Amino acid sequence: MTTAIWWIRRDLRLSDNQSLHSALSQADTVIPVYILDPHLLERNASRRHQFLFRNLQILSERLEKMGCPLVLRQGKPIVELSRLKEECGASIITAEADFSSYARQRDQEVKSELNLELVNGLLIYPPGAAVKADGTPYTVFTPFYNTWLALPLPNDPLPIPDHLPAYPPLSSEALPPSNEIDGFPAGEEQAQRRLDDFLQFSVGDYHNQRDRVDLDGTSLLSPYLRFGLLSPRSAYAQMRPFLDNPQTHDGASKWLNELVWREFYFNIMAAFPFVLHGAFREAMRDIPWRSSPQDLHAWQSGHTGYPLVDAGMRQLAQTGWMHNRARMITASFLTKDLLINWQEGEAWFMQQLLDGDPASNNGGWQWTAGTGTDAAPYFRVFNPVTQSRKFDPQGEYIRTWLPELAAVPDAFIHEPWKMPSELQVKAGVQIGRDYPAPIVDHGFARQRALAAYKK
DNA sequence: TGAACATTGTT
DNA sequence: ACAATGTTC
């Protein structure tokens, strides 16, 4: 008679759960446990906490129905796990491996005292699977991608276990109350539904619609991948027929490319943990950033005077999600136009994003700032107006998130400060009063950024 | 997974 | 004029 603890962290699902599967294959009794870790909960990320609690609620209900309720504990993981082990006599703990410095330190500590088995699942292939011939990690995406694609296909996803053994009663904390997040219904069934919708309706056009901020061309899966409501292996397996179908190949392939960016940045974080604290490239550690709380606040609150930038920032603040193209444009604006340290943006995004993940978020910011691996050349400065015309041609995205500009004619929607005053009256918006004039001139700012980066 | 600006070639 | 192309940051 053996007992295993299934320590749930970022794998809030029953389907394709390698940690759960390993626990079941080694023990007669499996105790599902989630530990509310004060170190993680103290972080200012209430939207992700809401989503986490809501998902725990749903998982807990499913486990309850299967006669194997979730045990919820609160405290330092090593302490809580040791206590739980004494209570239930478990001989093994299984968990899905995670790769941030905190996660690795936490797990190392647990491993040194308890029998912890870490399994793959957060990624399709564990960090280190796709490396250069000499065994060192890739620091450029494209060769990483090519090697990644050439790896043997992963095993098929695991089914949901049809039966979980019951266990004697254990105490459990009450779940904090939580609400549904608008636009991202919780639970692994909703994650699967979201993927089904994407495969049925959008994947074939993904490659040519994904950059359009005014269309629903993206998969919207990021929050689900973030919390392991969908395993990337399962998503990849379900994508494969669409890769093989010539009608949908281009879109599916572009989507896979994005999924591999996620794998890439996890590899980078695992191999170079210092990226979470500063620039990957040494040469980029001395950029003379500006300090301007006022400009930072204008950016955070969506009041820079550049409509697309502001629309993105307000979408983020209001919903916890932002279109990927808008993420690049707003990030470029902070780092290049305002010349504010990308780490300020990284922190703000981590605070706001429902899908906020240290590896992907850090990778994205360093890419935009030109400080990272595979860096965009520092002289690549997005023009917020050009990008706006290109990716929101009718200004629909802008009008959605900036209602004060709703009546601005198409000809001025991307640069409303050029609107003659009689048109401002007609559109019911006075620039400088109802909507800000640009807080910085892009042409000037571009030159300033080029000079600052060149030093 | 840029864009500004100069140059060239076409009306 | 203005689009296509090349060069530069």
From TrEMBL:
Site (described: Electron transfer via tryptophanyl radical) = 289, 342, 365
Reaction(s) catalyzed by this protein?
cyclobutadipyrimidine (in DNA) = 2 pyrimidine residues (in DNA)
Documented EC number(s) = 4.1.99.3
> Which GO BP terms sit in this record?
photoreactive repair; response to light stimulus
Q: Which SUPFAM superfamilies match?
A: Cryptochrome/photolyase FAD-binding domain, Cryptochrome/photolyase, N-terminal domain
User: A Gene Ontology MF term for this entry?
Assistant: deoxyribodipyrimidine photo-lyase activity
Give the residues the record marks as binding FAD: 206, 218-222, 255, 258-265, 355-357
- InterPro entries, per database record: Crypto/Photolyase_FAD-like_sf, Crypto/Photolyase_N_sf, Cryptochr/Photolyase_FAD-bd, Cryptochrome/DNA_photolyase_1, DNA_photolyase_1_CS_C, DNA_photolyase_N, Rossmann-like_a/b/a_fold
Identify the residues that the record assigns to the Photolyase/cryptochrome alpha/beta domain, covering every copy: 2-124
Its cofactor is: (6R)-5,10-methylene-5,6,7,8-tetrahydrofolate; FAD
Record's cofactor remark: Binds 1 FAD per subunit.
Name the enzyme group at the top EC level. Answer: lyase
Q: Which UniProt keywords apply?
A: Chromophore, FAD, Flavoprotein, Lyase
Q: Give the family per the record.
A: Belongs to the DNA photolyase family.
According to UniProt, the name of this protein is Deoxyribodipyrimidine photo-lyase
This chain's source organism reads Pelolinea submarina
Q: Give the source lineage, highest ranks first.
A: Bacteria, Bacillati, Chloroflexota, Anaerolineae, Anaerolineales
